[in-house]
Amino acid sequence: MLTLERLVLSQDDFLLTADWSVAAGEKVALIGPSGAGKSTLLMALAGFLPPAQGRILWHGADLAGVAPGDRPLTILFQDQNLFPHLSLAQNLGLGLSPTLRLTPDQAAQIDATLAQVGLAGMGGRKPGQLSGGQQGRAALARALLRARPLLLLDEPFAALGPALKAEMLDLVDEVAQATGAAVLMVTHDPSDAKRFADKTLLVADGVAHPPVPTVDLFANPPQALRDYLG
Amino acid sequence: MASSAFKISPAQGLSIVIAALILGSAAMVAAWADGFALAPADWQALRFTLLQAGLSAAVSSLLAIPVARALFRRRFPLRGLLIRLLAAPFVLPVVVAVMGLLTVFGRGGPINVGLGWLGLPEVSIFGLHGVVLANVFFNLPLATRMLLHGWQAIPSERFRLAQSLGLPPSTQFRHLEAPMLRAQLPGIFAVILLICLASFAIALMLGGGPKASTLELAIYQSLRFEFDLGRAALLAAVQFSLCAVITLLAAKLTLPQGFGAGLGRSMDSPAPKSWRRLCDVVAIAAAALFLFGPLLAVVIKGVPGLAALPNGVWPAVLRSVVVAVVSALLASAAALIMATGAARNKGKAIELAAMLPLAASALVLGTGLFLLVRPWIAPESVALPITVLVNATLTLPYLFRLLLPEARQLRADYGRLTASLGLPRRTRLRFVTLPRLARPLGYGAGLAAALSMGDLGVIALFAGDGGATLPLFVQHLIGAYRLQQAAAASLILVAVSFALFWAFDRLGSYYADA
């Protein structure tokens, strides 16, 4: 379980507070106007921004001081999720062995995972030779291999068209099922939240509100959400 | 976590080493200096140093104006090649250029033969004007590239507007080009002044007697021939202070960029015709002749000599290549560590340490190290290691400046991904940093190797009999007036320098593409 305990994030004159939990395996969408702090919250969870106050707990243990790579999570950034000079197999391999010394078993595992996300036989290609959708699949494949119990998505599919994005969300769903991971996904599109997330939380006016069931939130939107949806 | 506050990163450690080396040499020469009273000959050297550097910087900057302007507004075949070749003197060994200038301007050279036909007296290339001539040969291309960059930075919309208003060229110059020149010229002057203040090899070969001796040359002479350590140390202290002061003053100016000068957009508007066109043609042709004439002369004179190379040339080549390769590897490794370190840290300390060698000169560092090792071992027995160390240190600022923006970009693009994957230091170096920075690293290592290959500075201070590098070998041949052999050996020196540059540069691209 991920717990944000009276968390306060601050950057220059920006301030964001949060005080809630996400259970194992839950899928949560973060929605709200741009600049409200959705990405900032994810960066803090991933270990790139130390909290000004409060704590981030994983199963009751404080994550303060834990290096980004040692946290129980995988994060997909808006872009630059793959190293352009490494092959797909190498990019995925970094998820299994940070030294890239792969056993034959691990190599086979990489091939199988590529096939699982629909990239069978493409292990030798460089990211530049792939489409945007295929790059997203490759990044998700690495998340599958890392199999961390928490998956953070900072709008990695924002540049894709609606059909492709829907496909990606289905794949995220599969990955979450396979690894049993909880998912926190930033989005600015209500239909993403409705399609994918059990719960949705609203980030607005310096507060990341506690997650509530997505259906309830959109059935009875608070004022801030009404302002955002227009 | 308390211990991590005192942990020193490799970049910080290197910064301390560099600072210790530079400031330690300065402290060493200050401690050894014979009081602080300059003898009349020392004042003479100081005056001459300032005079030749000031004249060289002024002449180079001023002559660069018409050349850069002509290159900016004219389009002609081979223009791109010419602009690229303007970068070559940066890595051209000084002895080779001097060899070429001697061939063209020396006794029996085409200039004096021409003067003889006209019934005019011969000119001598030795002395102040020879030193300035050689400095201009090296720095006119540099100034031209920097100014060309300035011209290209003027938005083309301004020129279009000026032309649509029908402003004559003189008005255009006043409103568009003169402000750019006012902004750029002080920085260009300062950069060249700093380069020429450390003039050693040129003064060694073209200076004439005690009246035309720079501080660097005077250091060398008092150390090598008079064994007057106190005086050498005093002169080194003066030289260091001079360069440090000018570096600090120059740091306040906006320093122009020299390397990045591109070939430019196409000019949308036609350049002026008639007599202005003629002026531009003359400017470009004269500059090209001045730069390539001497090199051509070396080729013409040297090729027949290749058949009968003097003894000892190949061992000298071998020594030079070893020195060049080792110091290029050292300098690149140091620049890589410091640039990635500086990209990680917010503080300026690492950046400052990496730029510190700009204030030092080969002979100051050499004198400091000479005084340091002399009580323990014979200086000539460590001539090559010390040459490697000094060359690597002096080329570090150039490599660091090449790498820093790339290292910052790498961190901005992939720093978070690298951290989120928890890659250990070795993996990060092998799979992320090296492949991403291979191109500038290869280019920088090539520059360092070529500079080191052609360097004639600290080796002259340390080399014993039979321990010469190739540039020192060529200088000895010139000193003995064996000019054909010197020209032939110069050709080998140029070929090896550019081969080393090419090899490192290719290696970088190959690694980046692999």
UniProtKB/TrEMBL annotation, chain A:
Residue intervals of the ABC transporter domain: 2-230
Gene Ontology MF: a single term: ATP hydrolysis activity
Keyword Membrane (UniProt): yes
Gene3D superfamilies in the cross-refs: P-loop containing nucleotide triphosphate hydrolases
This protein's UniProt keywords: ATP-binding, Cell inner membrane, Cell membrane, Membrane, Nucleotide-binding, Translocase, Transport
Highest taxon in the source lineage: Bacteria
SUPFAM superfamilies given in the database record: P-loop containing nucleoside triphosphate hydrolases
Stored PANTHER family: SPERMIDINE/PUTRESCINE IMPORT ATP-BINDING PROTEIN POTA, THIAMINE IMPORT ATP-BINDING PROTEIN THIQ
Name of this protein: Thiamine import ATP-binding protein ThiQ
Taxonomic lineage from the root: Bacteria, Pseudomonadati, Pseudomonadota, Alphaproteobacteria, Rhodobacterales
Protein encoded by which gene: thiQ
